[in-house]
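Recall that a protein's primary structure is simply its ordered list of amino acids. Everything else, from secondary elements to tertiary packing, is in principle encoded there. The following example makes that idea concrete.
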Amino acid sequence: MSGQVSSYGGKTFSVWAGAALVIVSGVASVAAAIVLPARYHESAASAGQQTAGIPVAAVSLMKLSAVPAGRAPGFTLTDQDGHVLSLSAFRGKVVVLEFMDSHCTGICPLISREFIDAYHDLGRTQSRVVFLAVNVNQQYNRAEDVLAYSRAHALTAIPDWYFLTGPAAALRAVWREYDIAVTVAGEDGALMHATPVFFIGPGGNEHYVAEPTADRTSGGTVYLPSGQISGWGQGIAQVAEAMLR
């Protein structure tokens, strides 16, 4: 991937080309959509074969694709409570991994609601699934920032919820490993980032990636019908449960 330099909040940082820059945080006038990072593309036939055992409706709604077998890139960051954690600490559980903006008012809160629904839909398997997010906002990158977001969107109600953050260089390293592009667009400095949802198995290998999308009102507010939010929540739970079998 090629690199370039952008600025945000008076700070200068590198971003990567090669993954779609499609989700805008805090700017309601831009539609939310996503194209998967290049390394996660698979043919429809291959994805259909490898998602066997997961309800077809969930695969379709989530645009779920199987990914090439391999170990999920490791990282060590700090959670919302100030604890230093590594991805490897969650071995033995399914990890649902997302990249979120700690200052987002667009699609991230919608995904947060889907995570809460998914947690409730898991039922008896709740303790075997971890919901993990990595911060994409280098300006709001303190533990206090990700804690404030977690509280504001009721994610602290999930016992195994971790919103990880850290120094800008450490965050950029994780984005690079997962092909997550983050940049700034427009005169208002809107933060843009890709938001695929990754499913990592108990053994630490990547299994699936899903593609969140959102609509917007005529006034530009990003939204999803409540049925789609609950459908996504149920789908996340179904994928996680299939990985535990």
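The chain has a mean pLDDT of 81. The first strand starts at residue 3 and ends at 8.
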